[in-house]
Model the fold of this input.
Amino acid sequence: MSEAIVVAGARSNAGKTSLASWIVGNLPGRVAAIKTSISEGHEDIQVTADPAVTHKTGKDTQQLAAAGATPAVLLRASPADLEEALGEALSESAGADYLVVEGNRVLPHLHPELAIFLDAPGEEKPSAAEARDFCHLTVNGEQLRRLVEGEDNLAFSVAGASMSCRRAHLVARAFGAASRAVGDKFTAEGVKLRECQLGCF
Done:
């Protein structure tokens, strides 16, 4: 079973695909990615990993594929069809070591090992408030810039007062950071690591 990471966000065009692609590029092994588009306007389910669709220049899936996602999957569905569509997309992604999913509405259905909320000024999507509550980390616009430009791979804030050791290791892999550096950041932010093996951090 793939370890799943979801990138959610406050609004459209906040940079979710840039963050998701950066994470794809950091993770070892085979990484699959799913780009979701959930709207009442989508009357039919569309789930595809066909490169003729997903690798088109300018598409978010093309950016995910360029970062190394194999496959990059496009999921379009209405909210009512999301669970069925997600099942199809997960089948397309089977066998990957990691799965990176971009989208807010998948969180109640997927229960990922790590969820990251990309904050941005402006009017929030209706799905943003619920998504924020599911997330373990927050990244704002300036932090995103520092991440993707290679200035600081610890540019994130932790939501909550504790985190499991397993999730902390996944944070380190997703952000391309040393476990010790992540542990030091959690300590500085007052985050307690739990279920931790001796010496991991």
